[in-house]
Amino acid sequence: MKKEFIFLGPPACGKGTQTGSLSEYLNLPHIDTGSLLRAEIKNETEAGKEAKSYISKGQLVPVELVTKIIKNRLSQNDCEKGYILDGFPRSEEQAKELTKMNAEIDNGIETKFMAIYFDIDSNLLLERIVNRRSCPVCGTIYNLQSKPPKVAGHCDKDGAELIQRKDDTKEVAQSRFETYNRETAPLIEYYDKQGVLKTINANGSIKEVWERLIEVIND
Ligand code: AMP
Predict the structure, then answer these.
(1) Which end of the chain, N or C, is less packed with Cβ atoms under 10 Å?
(2) Mean pLDDT for each consecutive 10-residue tract of the chain (219 residues)?
(3) Pocket test for ligand 1, best of 8, 36, 72, 90 (most atoms within 8 A of CB)
(4) Contact yes or no for 93/190 (Cβ under 8 A)
(5) What's the chain's Rg over C-alpha atoms?
(6) Distance 83 CA to ligand 1 centre (A)
């Protein structure tokens, strides 16, 4: 059976770290919308040029743009057995688009769809964001306080120099939280009503959250 997982939760709730590990655990591709968009910007594509101004303001990029990128990605062969989708959908309109593209791509095969919500105490998040660093090569995420690299400023896996995302500043982060509350948080009820929502307590250490996640996945 094809396994399809999507993840909900505010910026810096720990989705990226956990979904990266889950991808290895389940041997399914980790599709992170934010990283796909940042790659478009880096490669100076038309989509990247359009997305840039929205991302720098902490707003959602237009639905047509992101839907096209995701549909392309979910149609690739490595998604045949399923996927771990991180950062999409982020609005009810996107959720409807996902249902449509799944129906088209899956074309009648048996699937299991699960939406996992990371429920977290939001007053911790701004601090997490400003301390976040990532590896531009392999995407590993660090936190200067809770998960520092072994050698300051460099990735443990490949030694690349760590970077801070341009939208990980206090000002842009505030706007990302507002966007999340307005556009994305309503999806919690949306998926709950469909009977596909699982909520995990996302407070605690990376290991504690991982154990809760695995319990839900294997449920
Ligand atoms: P993230 O890496 O998930 O925090 O995403 C970074 C930024 O990319 C967001 O603040 C949005 O501007 C944009 N973005 C990511 N995913 C989406 C999406 N599904 N729809 C629209 N914009 C998105």
Answers:
(1) C
(2) 97 93 96 94 94 95 96 96 97 97 92 97 89 91 92 97 92 94 98 98 94 93
(3) 90
(4) no
(5) 17
(6) 18
Question: Which residue in 71, 73, 96, 165 is the catalytic one?
Answer: 165
Which among 114, 133, 142, 155 has a CA at the least distance from the CA of 28? 114
N-terminal to C-terminal alpha carbon distance within the chain: 15
Residue 50: which of 39, 42, 61 has the closest Cα? Answer: 61
C-beta of residue 202 within 8 angstroms of C-beta of residue 120? yes
Please give the structure tokens belonging to residue 208.
């504690």
Instruction: Determine which helix (DSSP H) or strand (DSSP E) holds 8, and give its type and residue range.
Output: strand 2-8
Residues 184/8, Cβ–Cβ less than 8 Å: yes
Burial of 1 (0-12, 13-18, 19+ CB in 10 A): exposed
Q: How many whole angstroms separate alpha carbon 201 and alpha carbon 37?
A: 28
The neighbouring-strand residues paired with 111 are 2
